[in-house]
Write a structure and sequence with these properties.
The protein contains ten helices and 18 strands. By secondary structure, the protein is of the alpha+beta class. An eight-stranded mixed β-sheet has the order 1-2-6-3-7-18-8-17, with helices on both faces. Strands 12-14-10-15 form a four-stranded antiparallel β-sheet, covered by helices on one side. β4 and β5 form a beta hairpin. The longest helix is centred in the N-terminal third of the chain and has 24 residues. The protein is elongated and about 85 Å long. Bound molecules: zinc ion (ZN) (2 copies). One zinc ion binds next to loops.
Length: about 425
């Protein structure tokens, strides 16, 4: 109906412009019609997983697809990363959509018909390779979103920077890669996005559910190496040497007091984990050295600094108390805290509620896992959300976790993830003043 104030010549333009808006129903129909292909892409990636910085086949498939839908493609960013820009015909800002492509050194134990039997070299050993974190699903969903958005580009405002990122799970020793390397190589200069979005599939949510929260969502992660040096001697005569095993044990126990005694646990949780202790070769030799590897998870820079400082003091002081010496080495490339921009999270939550209904959208708890997309979220206001992939009939609490050799993706969740990307992207771009 024409508003009363409407002059004939204005109304000739007005309704036409309104009709050009991309609707949610259109996005849902496009996603549904692409469902079988997204599933097929995901199964192909699942059957052919590749480890971090080795995503050669995966990135070639992605690049081939992006070229086929008419995009100019940049390959080889951060080794195997693939980037393309969808140029909307209407003026507007740029946004970034990101998927990760790498798999894990896990031997698949599921019985899906497209189960991976791939192997690869990892730390000098032959290991099974599996998409045990669902990055196959992420890549397939973003390929789908790319095709649908590119198909609507004559009515799309702004630009969409598509980022297919390698090596989210961490790079092989001595290599660089992942989100920080893409940023170093000028990722954001390609389209200067003013907002960035990404998602992850998760076993702890039922299919149909989406979870997010404003502010910190996932922890910052640091990795450390402690070397305790004593003096080797006979196991029957400990007094003639210095036992680094007893000193290392005391360091592990004392390190547990950092979280329980030194941090304000009402503000945010934190974790200090020693995941590996290596020292000694037989029962009657006290070794000269013990090496320990571990990780720290925190939700603020202040907590992170405090934990590292306390761990350093404990490491050196406890070793000294045992007559040993010890060093704490912080490994390079920590992941920052993944922070969802509060205002943008409100906008995204409203989009997701419109698309899926309010009851499907949950508030995530703080997650102590980490994500290298946090580097992108530090550079651009960003929102990251979790998409459930555990079948409704199953209790998510009992579902094999991400990284399990039994990790299972309910493919109905691919539609949810794809639709979430489309709705968030199009709602954001169409809401901007032009
Ligand atoms: Zn993972
Ligand atoms: Zn992951």
């Amino acid at each position: 109906m024409k508003p009363a104030w409407c002059l004939a010549f204005v109304c000739a333009i007005g309704p036409a412009a309104a009709a050009a808006e991309i609707t949610g129903a259109e996005l849902d129909a496009a996603a549904a019609s692409l469902d079988a292909r997204v599933v097929a892409w995901r199964r192909d990636f699942h059957r052919n997983p590749e480890l971090a910085n080795r995503e050669f086949r995966t990135s070639a498939k992605v690049a081939e697809h992006l070229r086929a839908i008419g995009l100019e493609v940049r390959t080889g960013m951060a080794h195997t990363g693939v980037v393309a820009v969808i140029e909307g015909a209407l003026p507007g800002p740029a946004i970034l959509l990101r998927a990760d492509m790498d798999a894990l050194p896990v031997t698949e134990q599921t019985d899906v018909p497209f189960k991976s039997v791939a192997t690869a070299e990892f730390r000098g050993r032959t290991v099974g390779v599996m998409h045990a974190c669902g990055h196959d699903a992420h890549t397939a969903m973003l390929m789908g979103a790319a095709e649908i958005l590119a198909g609507m580009r004559d009515r799309l405002p702004g630009k969409v920077l598509l980022v297919f990122q390698p090596a989210e799970e961490g790079v092989p020793e001595g290599e660089q890669g992942g989100a920080p390397m893409m940023l170093d190589e000028g990722l954001l200069a390609i389209a200067k996005p003013e907002a960035a979005f990404s998602l992850h599939v998760g076993s702890s949510l039922p299919t149909g559910a989406i979870a997010l929260r404003p502010g910190p969502l996932m922890a910052g992660s640091d990795f450390f190496r402690i070397v305790v040096t004593g003096r080797q001697t006979h196991g029957s005569r400990p007094w003639s040497g210095i036992d680094p095993i007893v000193a290392a044990s005391s360091i592990v126990v004392a390190a547990q007091t950092i979280v329980s005694r030194d941090l304000d646990l009402t503000a945010a949780p934190a974790v200090v984990t020693v995941g590996a202790i290596n020292g000694g070769v037989r029962h009657n030799i006290i070794p000269g050295q013990v090496e320990m590897l571990g990780t720290i998870r925190t939700f603020s820079e202040a907590d992170r600094t405090k934990v590292i400082e306390r761990l350093r003091t404990i490491t050196t002081s406890v070793a000294t108390a045992h007559g040993a010496s010890a060093t704490l080495e912080m490994m390079p490339d920590p992941n920052p805290v993944l922070v969802n921009d509060p205002d943008l999270t409100g906008t995204v939550t409203a989009s997701l509620q419109r698309a899926f209904g309010a009851s499907a959208i949950r508030t995530s708890s703080l997650l102590t896992v980490a994500e290298d997309y946090a580097h992108i979220a530090q550079a651009v206001p960003s929102v990251y959300w979790w998409v459930g992939v555990t079948p409704a009939a199953q209790d998510p609490a009992g579902a094999p976790d991400n990284h399990s050799d039994l990790f299972f993706v309910d493919e109905a969740g691919l539609q949810v993830g794809l639709r979430s990307l489309l709705h968030v992207a199009v709602d954001y771009l169409q809401a901007q003043p032009r």
